[in-house]
Amino acid sequence: MTAGTASTGRADDAGAAGEPLIEFDRVTKSFGTGPEQVTALNGVSLTVGRGDIHAVIGRSGAGKSTLIRTINGLTGISGGRLVVDGEDIAAIGPGALRRKRRDIGMIFQHFNLYERRTVAQNVAFPLEIHRLPQARIRERVARVIDLVGLSDRAGHYPAQLSGGQKQRVGIARALVTEPRILLSDEATSALDSETTLQILHLLQDIRDRLGVTIVLITHELDVVKHAATHATLLEHGTVADSGRVRDLVLDRSSTLGAALFPHRLDQHGRHEHAGELLMVTFEGNLAAAPYWSQIARVFGVDVTIVSVSSDRIAGTWFSRFHLRITPAPGGHDEDAPVPLTPIAAWLRERGADAVPV
Ligand SMILES: Nc1ncnc2c1ncn2[C@@H]1O[C@H](COP(=O)(O)OP(=O)(O)OP(=O)(O)O)[C@@H](O)[C@H]1O
């Protein structure tokens, strides 16, 4: 996707990338009282860094919508502390909350466009509410419409647009107030897979150009895989897993990491080759080095590739091998145990993640 040539909006001038911007500290949220009470968030602690694209994933009812709506104060919290860009959301007054909301754009699954307004009029709407002068409104609207690649559709009505184009209008409208934070509530759930990818690329482009921090909720792993720098798995209102996507993929104990990049060796293979198998995961182009022949020479073993898988996750290629290591005839002492642990250490020294399985 090419997103036009505009360098719109306020680049993030208030801090360095990665520093905490949104901090949930044991946040709870309950709806109703007594036996009817539902606890949607149950002690959520979570940090979103400036410039991150943080995906919150979970099943229906896990608390995702509730969580994202607490960030702009659409839903108040019941307990804990939530700090957004240095301000305690529960403690600020209504005027300050209104100002804060200008700093937080939001996009929706069903776009929420005004059917009787053109693309340009939809995008202009938030600025009209803020009573900006017409000339500034026109200039800003043109800039964001260009950014989302819809300059040739500015005079069209929503009914004349595809789903992907409608979401681009939603994104332009969310960005026209030059927010620091963009919240995405299942923004690609109503789109086909190709359009989903285009919208996710647009969000990444916006993050790169404007420094906007993005929190998106989704129930689709592919969205996390293609767009997110960080991810959190919510289960029954609690954080079941959270971290940088790259770290999650390399963390063998991570539920999300295993879902994003499955370990993929059936129990049969695992059982049959017990004591001989290494699982090796490479990030980036490390897998291009001639490690297998080097291992064979250095350790006097034979190396058989039992399985291999690779995938592009968070913009990086990962590849994972299951290797069977057996004594080479005339090489390693055939009665000694196969040196899995030293081979794993040797690979780790070279930047791979390697572990006997
Ligand atoms: N306004 C409300 N009043 C009462 N209960 C609510 C309200 N909003 C959410 N809940 C309840 O809180 C829990 C979490 O809901 P939430 O919408 O945050 O989940 P979700 O993960 O976004 O689900 P989905 O993917 O289906 O949208 C659910 O049990 C839901 O019924």
UniProtKB/TrEMBL annotation:
- A GO molecular function for this record? ATP binding
What biological process terms from GO does the record include? amino acid transport
**Gene3D superfamilies given for it?**
3.30.70.260, P-loop containing nucleotide triphosphate hydrolases
Give the coiled coil ranges.
none
Q: What is this protein called?
A: Methionine import ATP-binding protein MetN
Task: Write down the InterPro entries for this protein, in alphabetical order.
Answer: AAA+_ATPase (IPR003593), ABC_transporter-like_ATP-bd (IPR003439), ABC_transporter-like_CS (IPR017871), ACT-like_dom_sf (IPR045865), MetN_ABC_transporter-like (IPR050086), NIL_domain (IPR018449), P-loop_NTPase (IPR027417)
Specify the species. Answer: Sediminivirga luteola
Keyword list (alphabetical) reads: Amino-acid transport, ATP-binding, Cell membrane, Membrane, Nucleotide-binding, Translocase, Transport
Q: Name one Pfam family in it.
A: ABC_tran
Give the matching SMART domains.
Answer: AAA
Q: Which gene encodes it?
A: metN
**Residue ranges of every copy of the ABC transporter domain listed in the record:** 22-261
